Amino acid sequence: MIDKLKIENVDLYYGEFQALKNINMNIQENEITAFIGPSGCGKSTFLKTLNRMNDLIEGVKITGKILLDGVDIYKDMDATVLRRRVGMVFQKPNPFPMSIYENVAYGPKTHGIKNKAKLDEIVEQSLRSAAMWDEVKDRLKKSALGLSGGQQQRLCIARAFSVNPEVILLDEPTSALDPISTMKIEDLLIEIKNNYTIVIVTHNMQQATRISDKTAFFLHGEIIEFDETERLFSMPKNKKTEDYITGRFG
Amino acid sequence: MQNIKRTNFSENIMQAIFFLSAFISVLAVLAICLFLFMRGIPAIAEIGFMDFIFNEKWGPTNTPASYGILSMIVGSIYVTAGAIVIGVPIGLMCAIFLAEFCPDNVYKFVKPAVNLLAGIPSIIYGFFGMEVVVPFVRENMGGNGYSIMSASLILGIMILPTIISISESSIRAVPDNYAEGSYGLGATKEETVFKVVLPAAKSGVLTSIILGIGRAVGETMAVVMVAGNAVMPLDKIELFKPIRTLTTNIVTEMSYASGLHESALISTGVVLFVFIIILNASLSLIKSKAQRN
Amino acid sequence: MDRSMNNLNKRKAKAMMLKAFVWLCGILTVGILIYILLFILLRGIPNINLKFLFGEYNSETLSAFSSIVATVQMIVLSLLISVPIGVFCAIYLAEYAKRGNKAVKAIRLAVDTLAGIPSIVYGLFGMIFFVNILGFRTSVLSGIFTISIMILPVIISSSEEAIKQVPDTYREGSLGLGATRLRTVFHIVLPSAMPGILSGVILAIGRIVGETAALIFTSGTNVLKNPSLNLFASQRTLSVHMYMLASEGLPHSRNMAFATGSILIIAVFIVNYATTKLAGRIGRLSND
Questions:
Q1: Prior bond of B64 cis (ω within 30°)
Q2: Is B264 found in the same domain as B189?
Q3: Phi, psi at residue B103, to the nearest 5°?
Q4: Which of C1, C8, C18 to mutate to test the interface with A (most CBs of A within 10 A)?
């Protein structure tokens, strides 16, 4: 297995408040890594440091190193290049108020692809990868805001595919969705993991056990335990992890 | 018991007074329509609708007199279009600047400046135009300076605050997660603002432009001081030559007009009024469409 | 890889250009304002003197005294008419009206329409209705009535906005103590909404001070030697005074037009300052 992302001694501060404490982990290629933990534990914050979305928030200070294929993403990489390679899907589906086609074509257009035929191809491929081509191929010109919540979220996943990323970060992508839409998205993630590195933040422990290869348990800005998903859930080494997964707190 | 009755009574009286006060606005609009049309429509009928609207000959003191306002309709359209061409790009960029790029300590100065720009009376704009813009146009672009160009420049400045404030607030109202989605795909700040945020704010921007058009079409004093106000035959209308608009037609001749001439000036006001009503209607159309989305 | 890096540089250059352009437009807007203000003030303030401010009007002084008094008169009396009507209308819309009511729709449509009507049309209406039909002649009185209608939408919208911002908990508190709706409106809602209502009133004052087109045919362009409170006399306000001086075209009247413009600008400054101060107070209120 290849380490796609290496995280070394990462601390993160919002002003005076330390939100992440000495995070170290390796995230491997072609696997699904899940982050679990109670709200406010830092798992989403940490996810956002992986493609520098925290740069957009004022007063955030980050120390330590995050390496993507061995390159320091905070020192030696442009944020726009990084975010093309490390895509993101957000908690609340956030399609742009444009047509379905324009939503998917936005990314490649941003990165300089102008050829119409090429764009058509990317749009179809991305929508196929998100398993929604057949649902929407007849209404590509319709507004994306007319789709159901689950469809909107899969469109956002297709949009993330459109720039051909290597890593996809998902921040509680199914928390606003119904069970059927959730299942569709989970199936989709398992299907595509051979071509990508996937990191998912989830509130739902069953979801982590269903889809992830590795799981990290976060508490108060620290990683308490990080292990193979099966092992972490069946025989946690740390008492706090055990308390959390057996529902004794949080 | 009696006390309750009394409070109920005063409650009802006051509620009636509130309602009547509210209804005064409706009465005012009705009265404006009624009296304007009452004086304006018969004159249009007497002149002949086609002769009034589609004739370019305006000579109320000639024998026989002629009352065609086509060249003023065209004049109003030209100066308004000019104002939009100048004011909308600058105003929109300034709105983007205020909403997305302006550091807080600069915002503290720019925002009040925009508000101040909105508060300056038209007469000051007109005088400034007469003293600065007209000579500038005369010396650098030709003609005597009193021209479509000068009027467009002044109106372009005057509609800036309208365009800026309304566009700014509609840009600010765009949910953050649209921008996040764009950043997440590797777009830069500028790409995000221009390709995602601005299109999402388009109904607000459109509203600001229509309000700007309304302000430019209806502006009188500032235009009368810089436009030269000569009635131009359609084929002689040029960017650097004088022009007369609907509003300035009224204000330049009303003081000495009487009889049909005076009525024809009021009819000019009716045409202006109808135009404003159409603009208002399109505004509420945009509003209801935006609400449905 | 190389090609995509090139593309990145191109994108960054374009982004920089856009950013520069956006900054430029911001600076341009402020620049225009400063230019206009300085242009008028620098030429106007040296021409302001006591005779101009408080002297008798003649071709020598071109005094603004009677115009200033007429303007103040116009402000006070038209506010006296429109503020109660406007605030009551706002109370009706915000506190009593039921959603979707046909009358409410008509009222809102009317307020929007009034807000969009150009001043010259108000001028024509005032001339037809107040000057001719009601027989007030060209007089301060006709001007006051015309202006009252014109500023109505300003007062209604800002008052309604202010009333809506009063938290429902205030109303519930008062109603819960057994107070009537009316008492709640006058003793709880209106006092809390006062800064917003006042800022609407001040905005309206700004509009009255700056108005020209609606007054030329109603209040007229006449100037009196000495100030008079006679409502039936035709009198020019400060803005009309400036227009008359500016269109005279003589060097002396031009100088005095600059002076009048400076007074107007100072008035606008005061109005803007007061509204911003009040707006700040509203912000603080709703933070509680």
A1: yes
A2: yes
A3: -65, 150
A4: C8
Secondary structure class of C269 (helix, strand, coil):
helix
The whole-model pTM stands at: 0.89
A145 chain-B contacts, CB cut-off 8 A: 293
| Residue B49 belongs to a domain | no
Instruction: For residue C98, give the DSSP letter.
Output: P
The single-letter DSSP state of residue C186 is I
Q: How confident is the model at residue C217 (pLDDT cuts 50, 70, 90)?
A: very high
pLDDT of residue A39: 87
Contact C247 B110 (CB under 8 A): no
**H-helix or E-strand spanning residue A26:** strand A17-28
Strand partners, B67: B58
| CA–CA separation, A118 and A115 (whole Å) | 5
Q: Would the CB atoms of C10 and A112 count as touching at under 8 Å?
A: yes
Report the first-to-last Cα separation within chain B, whole angstroms.
52
CATH of the domain at A128: 3.40.50.300
Residue B169 has pLDDT above 50, yes or no: yes
Cα–Cα distance for residue pair B49/B38, rounded to 1 Å: 15
Residue A146: per-residue pLDDT: 92
pLDDT at B205 over 80: yes
* Closest residue on chain B to A108 (Cα): B185
Cα–Cα distance for residue pair C185/C183, rounded to 1 Å:
5
CB contact under 8 A, A78 and C4: no
Q: Is the dihedral of CA A226, A231, A233, A238 positive or negative?
A: negative
Same-domain check for residues B24 and B130: no
**Residue C1: its pLDDT value, please?**
37
How confident is the model at residue C2, as a pLDDT?
40
Structural domains in chain A (count): 1
Q: Which of residues 45-64 of B touch C (CB under 8 A)?
A: none
ipTM here: 0.93
List Cβ neighbours of C223 (8 Å cut-off, separation of 6 or more).
Answer: C57, C66, C67, C235, C236, C241, C244
CA-to-CA distance for C281 and C286, rounded, in angstroms? 9
Asked if A90 and B184 come within 8 Å (Cβ–Cβ), the reply is yes
B201 and B250 in a single domain? The answer is yes
| A62-90 residues labelled b (16+ CB within 10 A) or e (exposed) | bebebbbeeeebbeebbbbebbbbbbbbb
Report helix, strand or coil for B128.
helix
Tell me, rounded to whole angstroms, the distance of Cα B16 from its chain centroid.
Answer: 35
Which helix or strand (DSSP H or E) is residue B163 part of? helix B148-172
First to last CA, chain A: 33
In chain B, the number of structural domains is 2
- Domain spanning C50-287: which superfamily? MetI-like (1.10.3720.10)
Mean pLDDT across chain B, nearest whole number? 93
A250 in any annotated domain: no
